[in-house]
From TrEMBL:
Gene3D superfamilies: 4'-phosphopantetheinyl transferase domain
Family label: Belongs to the P-Pant transferase superfamily. Gsp/Sfp/HetI/AcpT family.
Chain ranges of the 4'-phosphopantetheinyl transferase domain: 109-170
One GO cellular component, as annotated: cytosol
Protein name: 4'-phosphopantetheinyl transferase superfamily protein
Length: 235
């Protein structure tokens, strides 16, 4: 039986308000200490929103009382769901940007990234840092009106893959992999244009996406391949 995934896209403000309404008891001691160290109200809201929604949505999937679920972390930093102290049979990935929280759940490794840029960037410089030769060419070849969209689609695909594997966005390794358009049946990643940016979801090949955030339209399908133009040991 193939793995399944669900993607949720939520406004941070409403998700944080829902978390606040639960009181502080649901937080672990580690989470309470982390929350106390956060001085920015926006960052506090994002922390609460993500940590509560990870529990709440996992409880819905597993049909368990939310009080049995906690959020911990793998050794590589990826979030880890626990049920009664033991690792849950679900993987979770979180991302936030601007006013939005993206959360993916799956019964196989998964990574999600949302990017809503707040300022102008030097896309070509950033592309040279982490994009493969093919991806850099795609950014350069895009016309002025589409270049930002192309960049953000590829950037979020790169981030989502790093979250799926747990390696994060390591420039040398990232340049050795390229995102290529794929048919839906063979895709391991999906991307959506969202606001003035993009959202991407990286799943294990063969995973079926059961539910998608209502704010998203039709996705573009992708697979990851070894770049023909970048050696893995490039500095």
């Amino acid at each position: 039986m193939s793995a399944a995934a669900r993607l949720h896209l939520l406004p941070v403000a409403s998700a944080a308000a829902e978390a606040d309404a639960q009181g502080p008891e649901w937080l672990t001691e580690t989470e309470r200490l982390r929350l106390q160290a956060i001085t920015s109200p926006a960052r506090r809201d994002t922390f609460l929103a993500g940590h509560w929604q990870a529990r709440s949505l996992a409880a819905q999937w597993l049909q368990l009382d939310v009080r049995r679920i906690a959020l911990d972390a793998h050794a590589d930093g990826r979030p880890l769901l626990r049920v009664d102290g033991d690792a849950a049979p679900l993987h979770v990935s979180l991302s936030h940007s601007g006013d939005w929280l993206a959360l993916a759940l799956a019964d196989a490794p998964v990574g999600v990234d949302v990017e809503l840029p707040q300022r102008e960037r030097d896309w070509n410089a950033l592309a040279r840092f982490v994009f493969s030769a093919e991806e850099r060419q795609r950014v350069q070849d895009a016309d002025d009106a589409a270049r930002a969209d192309v960049f953000h689609a590829l950037w979020t695909l790169k981030e989502a893959r790093g979250k799926r594997s747990g390696e994060g966005l390591q420039p040398r390794a990232a340049r050795a992999v390229t995102a290529q358009p794929a048919e839906a049946a063979g895709a391991e990643a999906l991307s959506w244009a969202f606001g003035n940016g993009a959202l991407a979801l990286a799943m294990m090949p063969g995973t079926r996406l059961e539910r998608v955030g209502e704010a998203l339209g039709a996705p573009t399908y992708w697979r990851y391949a070894v770049s023909a133009g970048d050696a893995p040991d490039r500095d």
